[in-house]
Specification:
The complex is a heterodimer. Chain A is mainly alpha-helical. Chain A contains 22 helices and no strands.
Chain lengths: 559, 288
């Protein structure tokens, strides 16, 4: 055997080994999902056992006969408007808060050769401000909207105010973090040019950073607006205004006809919203800003929010830092709940990634109905119709699951399979099919057309084109997206737990409803740590998966 | 980025305007509320005649503020958003411990109140001991007769630990009538609720009586009470109490109010009556 043969042989072996390693890894991931499912004690068979089928049947029967009495429709309409206004005002608050925090969180790139250093104390206090701002941002982000909403209901009373503030804070944290990251990613030369000219921080921000990021910032704000209006339809379950109170009550009293009306309203309303927002995305930022201003003026006029109570509320305090001793049995219980939360999030992420992986390619035009070739061979009419149908069904499934908030799904699944981890896993999984489907579809659309085109030119079928032309290009990015969603889902799992779907959210709910302030303080501190650790680990692993630089800002538009 | 400056200014100014609007608010109104232990329609039906009676008797506008969460009633009382609240024994103790709320009046039945344990007829449960290993629903987490005392009696009388000895964790239905609905539907096999709501539901036709049966009634304990916030003038509290104490079952219009409340008459409430609830609350770990 010649030397070159031997090295070819070795290369082949190495490649084969790499393949095996990959298969082993997939197998391990699959096993981990199965193991986690078993450990949470969730039995998916409950979905379709006798009780499950009966409950599902009850829900579906009700859904088929929505309550269309005049009074109820009027009420649903009024509450829908309230939800819309909550979303708008919450987003405006979040953007204001996020932008002002981002201003302090941004690290302005230094000149390579600064003419004179700022005094040490200035630099240190700037660094301290930056660090503090980032801390505030992560605190805001780590606590789910529904927890904030429930806390604010306690502070300022029932009504839309609590929801507006909850959205403002959580989303403000998200926006602040993302805006800072986007701003740090701007072309550094403009910044340095201004810096060299001796411009102040404010001037740099206004003239170098803002013009470069305004488009991305508006885009993300619009995306948040959609999410916020959706969440505004459900925060009412804890008394924070909007449609949520009706959803909560109709589920509590098994009035599925009312539930149907409310859910249909949410659906119609969210789809309309997507259309408007798609329009806005194509227009200039001033359109969005103008509408936001009008919307918030209307919201402030319409929603009766006792702002003054925020400053002067005499409500009993909900957090306490005295007597904050570590209580061993309680912390053991919390550790178990964290374990459950993580496992639920992991199973849900795997399930939804798997389904999205199947549905997203079917929803992609290039693969299903179009071709990567400029001059594709003609196919039979029947096959064309069939493919169109498949594509649109898959698109509808992705769209439909994406627009229903996890919390709403959780409420429905709690009725279907009873409280506990299974309901939570299902809620997160179903919602994420849609979210990941859209993420994956976007990734598929962006592939290099060369390899799949070559395969198609040789007569390869859809599956082969996908597996050997498209997939190898995007595998790493799909994995990174999935991991990113896992991080988001950890927080979402804490949220659905709040309505009885397992995990740490249930403990949060108990602590707030029974005024166990010490427990609440410990739980919130635990949540903060958990989210910080998961985020940090996620960043590390993602960086390994993608050798190319890949940061959250690229993903975040769909966060 | 070019924006219409006017629009931007409007965003900045509008919260201030709203704030100013809030500051001007009438004060000669009495706000009352109550824990949402039943569905909102039923609550509205029960409170309407009462509010009218109070209005007539006190000579000021009385507003009923609905809440959808037990704790919200407690913190609203503490925050001074409402003046009087119809609380359960346990929520009253929470309000007393946290913000010094004072008891005013209670129904005659509240001194010796009971909870009733119910089971689905297909569950094979005939006595409380049979509930071990079956699924179970309490009412709201902060409910006295739907959670606190049922939990306490389960543990003291039958050695059943609610968190360990049922099939899965206990379910919190959120309200007494919701517990009956859950047991009726078979979603849970057994549950516990306020005896007054149970009797009222038994007298009506809101559920299928062949599917749910009562299996045990608890010993008596003290429950519901009208509570006043700490800083109300004594005269106001006195007048409010008098409005209830003067209700006379022999007068038809008073009887209508009393019937809806499930009472023959109202009696003064004493803070000492609730010491036992505080004790039970601490022993079950619900009060911390």
């Amino acid at each position: 055997m010649s030397a070159s043969d031997r090295s070819a042989d070795q290369a082949w072996r190495a490649e084969r080994q790499a393949h095996w390693r990959q298969y082993a890894m997939w197998l391990l991931i699959g096993l981990s999902g199965w193991l986690c499912l078993a450990l949470t004690g969730a039995h998916p068979t409950k979905l379709f056992d006798q009780d499950g089928l009966r409950n599902a049947g009850d829900i579906l029967t009700g859904m088929a006969h929505p309550d269309v009495s005049r009074d109820f429709l009027a009420r649903v309409f009024e509450l829908s408007v309230e939800s819309l206004l909550i979303g708008i005002l919450g987003t405006v608050m979040a953007v204001l808060l996020g932008t002002s925090l981002a201003f302090f969180a941004i690290r302005v790139p230094d000149l390579p050769d600064p003419p004179r250093q700022a005094p040490t104390w200035v630099r240190h206090s700037l660094a301290l401000a930056r660090w503090l701002t980032r801390l505030v941002l992560s605190v805001l982000r780590a606590i789910p909207e529904i927890v904030w909403a429930y806390l604010f209901v306690r502070l300022i009373g029932l009504g839309p105010g609590a929801a507006v503030l909850a959205i403002g804070l959580t989303v403000g944290g998200n926006i602040g973090k993302l805006y800072a990251e986007l701003a740090e990613a701007v072309e550094p030369r403009t910044v340095q040019a201004l810096r060299a000219a001796g411009a102040s921080r404010w001037a740099i921000f206004l003239h170098a950073v803002l013009p470069q990021v305004s488009r991305q910032w508006t885009g993300y704000a619009l995306f948040c607006l959609e999410c916020n209006i959706r969440i505004g339809t459900i925060l009412g379950v804890v008394g924070a205004g909007g449609l949520g109170s009706e959803i909560g009550l109709s589920l509590r009293y098994f009035q599925y006809d009312k539930l149907a009306t409310t859910l249909l309203a949410v659906l119609a309303f969210v789809v309309a919203l997507e259309l408007v927002s798609a329009q806005l995305r194509q227009r200039r930022a001033r359109w969005s800003l103008g509408l936001a201003a009008m919307g918030s003026a209307w919201a402030l006029h319409q929603l009766d929010i006792p702002w003054a109570d925020l400053l002067s509320s005499q409500a009993p305090p909900l957090l306490t830092f005295d007597k904050l001793v570590v209580d061993v049995p309680f912390m053991q219980a919390v550790a178990a709940q964290i374990g459950e939360t993580l496992m639920m999030a992991w199973v849900a992420t795997l399930v939804s990634a798997g389904l999205a992986f199947v549905l997203a390619p079917i929803a992609a035009s290039h693969l299903m109905t179009g071709s990567y070739l400029s001059d594709p061979p003609r196919t039979g009419a029947l096959s064309r119709v069939w493919r169109q149908v498949l594509k649109w069904v898959s698109r509808a499934a992705l769209q439909g699951t994406r627009v229903v908030p996890e919390l709403t799904l959780a409420l429905v699944f709690v009725v279907w399979v009873g409280g506990g981890p299974l309901a939570g896993i299902m809620a997160i999984a179903v919602h994420n099919i849609g979210v990941m489907g859209r993420l994956f579809a976007d990734v598929f659309e962006e592939v290099e057309a060369g390899p799949p085109a070559v395969l198609q030119a040789q007569g390869a079928g859809t599956l082969a084109t996908f597996l050997f032309g498209v997939l190898p290009q995007v595998k790493a990015r799909l994995a990174a997206f999935t991991l990113y969603r896992f991080e988001v889902n950890v927080r979402a799992t804490a949220m659905v737990g709040f309505v009885g779907a397992g995990g740490i959210g249930d403990a949060l709910n108990t602590a707030i409803s029974l005024f166990h302030m010490r427990d609440l303080t410990l739980l919130l501190l635990t949540m903060l740590t958990l989210v910080a650790v998961v985020d940090a680990l996620g960043d590390k692993v993602r960086a390994r998966i993608l050798s190319a630089p890949f940061s959250k800002p690229l993903l975040a538009p769909y966060a | 980025m070019t924006t219409a400056p006017l629009a931007r200014r409007a965003i900045l100014l509008s919260p201030l305007l709203a704030l100013a609007a809030q500051a001007v608010q009438a004060e000669d109104v009495i706000r009352v509320s109550g824990i949402p232990d039943e569905n909102p329609t039923e609550l509205a039906r029960k409170y309407q005649p009462l509010v009218e009676h109070l209005q007539k008797h006190l000579g000021v506008k009385v507003v009923y503020v609905p809440v959808i969460d037990y704790g919200a009633a407690v913190s609203a009382l503490g925050a001074g958003k409402i003046d009087f609240a119809w609380l359960g024994g346990f929520t009253f103790v929470q309000a007393k411990v946290m913000s010094g709320a004072k008891p005013v009046v209670m129904r005659d039945i509240d001194r010796e109140f009971h909870s009733v344990f119910i089971a689905n007829t297909a569950s094979g449960i005939n006595k409380p001991e049979d509930m071990r290993g079956k699924s179970f629903a309490f009412g709201a987490k902060s409910s006295t007769s739907g959670h606190l005392f049922p939990r306490y009696f389960l543990s003291t009388q039958f050695k059943i630990d609610a968190d360990k000895d049922f099939a899965g964790a206990p379910i919190y239905s959120g309200a007494h009538d919701a517990t009956v609905k859950m047991v009726e539907s078979g979603k849970v096999q057994s549950g516990a609720l306020n005896i007054e709501v149970w009797q009222r539901l038994m007298a009506g036709d809101k559920f299928d009586k062949s599917k749910v049966k009562a299996i045990w009634t608890t010993p008596a304990f003290v429950d519901y009470v009208w509570a006043a916030r700490k800083d109300l003038p004594a005269a106001t509290v006195q007048k409010f109490a008098q409005a209830f104490l003067s209700l006379d079952a022999s007068k038809p219009e008073d009887k209508a109010v009393l019937d809806l409340q499930g009472a023959k008459k109202f009696v003064p409430a004493n803070v000492e009556d609730f010491a036992v609830i505080e004790q039970v609350g601490r022993s079950t770990g619900l009060l911390k």
